[in-house]
Design goal:
Length: 148
C-alpha cells in the first residue's frame, strides 16, 4: 500500500532527533573570586562544581530564568548583567545550549539551597576542580572572561 505510514520507522526517526536544553549560568563575582556550587547527590553530574544557574522555562527570557534560578538555588535576588558567552555542548543523551551571564550585584548572602556546598574560588582554581565537561572544554575562554 503506497503512502502507508510505518509508525515503527517514525518512532525510530523521532528518537534519533537530539534534545536540546537551554541553560543559563551566572558568573557571580566578588572581588577576584567567582562563586561555584557543588552538585548534590542524586542529581546529574553529582559532586561536580558548577556555576549556579539552570534551565530556561517556557515563557521566560534568559535573564528572567537566571534570576529565578539564583533565587531558588542560592536564595538571592540578583541583578543579571551582560551575556559573557553562549555556546553548545553535546552529552551522549542530550545537547545543552549554555548562556553565561555576569552577575556583580545581588541582595542577600548566597547559601547552598540546591548545592551541597558553595565556595568562592580564584578563577585559576577552576583548573583543579571536578567541573562538568561542558565547562572544562570552555575553560580557557571562561578564564579569559573572569580575568577581565
Amino acid at each position: 500500500m503506497t503512502g502507508a505510514v510505518n509508525y515503527n520507522t517514525l518512532q525510530c526517526m523521532a528518537s534519533k532527533r537530539p534534545t536540546w536544553i537551554p541553560v543559563v549560568t551566572a558568573m557571580i563575582r566578588k572581588g577576584p573570586y567567582v562563586l561555584i556550587g557543588q552538585r548534590p547527590e542524586g542529581h546529574t553530574l553529582a559532586g561536580q562544581w558548577e556555576f549556579p544557574g539552570g534551565k530556561i522555562e517556557i515563557g521566560e527570557s534568559p535573564e528572567q530564568a537566571l534570576a529565578r534560578e539564583l533565587n531558588e538555588e542560592l536564595g538571592i535576588e540578583a541583578e543579571i548583567g551582560d551575556i559573557q558567552m553562549a555556546c553548545t555542548h553535546s552529552y551522549p543523551e542530550v545537547g545543552i545550549f549554555l548562556v553565561f551571564f555576569e552577575v556583580q550585584f545581588w541582595k542577600g548572602e548566597p547559601k547552598p539551597v540546591h548545592h551541597s556546598e558553595l565556595k568562592w574560588v580564584l578563577p585559576e582554581e577552576l583548573k583543579t576542580l571536578n567541573i562538568p565537561e561542558a565547562n572544562r572544554r570552555l575553560l580557557p575562554t571562561i578564564l579569559e572572561i573572569l580575568r577581565s
